[in-house]
Batch of 2 targets.
Target 1
Amino acid sequence: MKDEFNDIIKPYLTDEFYELKSIEHHGITRYDHSIRVAYYTYLVTKVLHINYEEATVAALFHDFFTDEVDEEKSIFKLRRHPKYAIENASKYVDLTDIQEDIIKTHMFPITFTPPKYLESWIVDIIDDVSAVYEKAYSLRKEISAAMSFIFILVFYCIK
Ligand SMILES: [Fe+2]
Ligand SMILES: [Fe+2]
């Protein structure tokens, strides 16, 4: 399964896509987040026997933006980045209706238009679950680093 997933995404792992490795996103990189969302989309849509190749490619591109919206205020960034991701993805893939809908609506309900297709709902939910998991994981790392620091500090104070 992993081989098939790699074959699907391989043509799109361009230099521009690799730039996402240098952008922080939910405490990890935007590249890692995109691969995670694409992989779980692949697994779920494959099991459900729906358009898994289309959905996987769209999921890979759902946050495909670099600095177009990074300087904007947070809520605008949350609402507008799907538009930039569609524009950027269109350079590499002739997006189908389903793929465009997946990218456009993946921030629903923050963006107001609901997904039209089952594949879009799946990516929306996987993206949300991944974001919560990634944020919690990075916070846990920060908290354990802070606890270690406090522990060392206390240790030296009572020594
Ligand atoms: Fe997003
Ligand atoms: Fe995302």
Target 2
Amino acid sequence: MSQQCTLCPLECGADRKKHPGACGGEDAVRIVKYGLHPYEEPCISGKNGSGTIFFGGCALRCAFCQNFEISHGQLGRRADAAALAALFAELEERGAENINLVTAAHYIPQLIQAFRLHRPKIPVVYNTHSYEKTDALQAIDPYIDIYLPDLKFYSPDISARYTGKSDYFRFAREAVRFMAQREAVFENGKMLRGCIVRHLVLPLCTNDSLRLIDWFSSLQSPAYFSLMGQYTPCGDIARFPELQRRITPREYKKVRDYLLDRGAEHVFLQQLSAADERFIPDFSSDTDTLF
Ligand code: SF4
């Protein structure tokens, strides 16, 4: 890794051997939690669960992050490439349907090293906030089977309000355009390759959701679209009164109907009942169980 890290759009220039970057990432990955995740989309969780690894740190840092303690804190244990490769193998042995890398964009060089030591026989899922540089994605692309990119904000004002980054969509647009090209392949209801673009509806932000749907539709890509209604007040949101409630059925319906009216065929729709803290892993317990 270069001594001055410029991996992500922040280009903070940290020497990660000496101190963490603005993302919280050091030279070695930090693993906060891992295990079999039953609550991803059904084609991802399958029967046995998705072999999910939660990494510490994040370059985007949404104020309302449901994994706030791990994205903003310095939790987790350091792992070198050999330890990460061993973890891939452990999850395979436990019967995971896939290896699911959650918010790992700030560790792309370390992930590539681990894949060179152990290439999983099950699909590898790359789960990202999409605030990424396309050249970094191109580097890890040969090792990835399924992309799960979030598409969070269209408006620079909204992304600046909740993340401090007004350029979110400028980078996410190119990153999602790249990931969404992946053709889907299924076997017995399980996704083996493909891309599912996820969008979380936020309180008072439905018009932003509609603009994202318009943009996604204009791509005419083979990607699936997953509309999520699970927003749960979390994180550092005291400054944002509008974020202190879940979304209403009316807000969700407005976005869902707009999506379906545009003739979208490849769609996952989450039930509003998924907006529950029970579906957020407990990051204070042992590292090798999720719920
Ligand atoms: S990945 Fe982290 S260390 Fe590297 S530029 Fe981005 S914020 Fe800085």
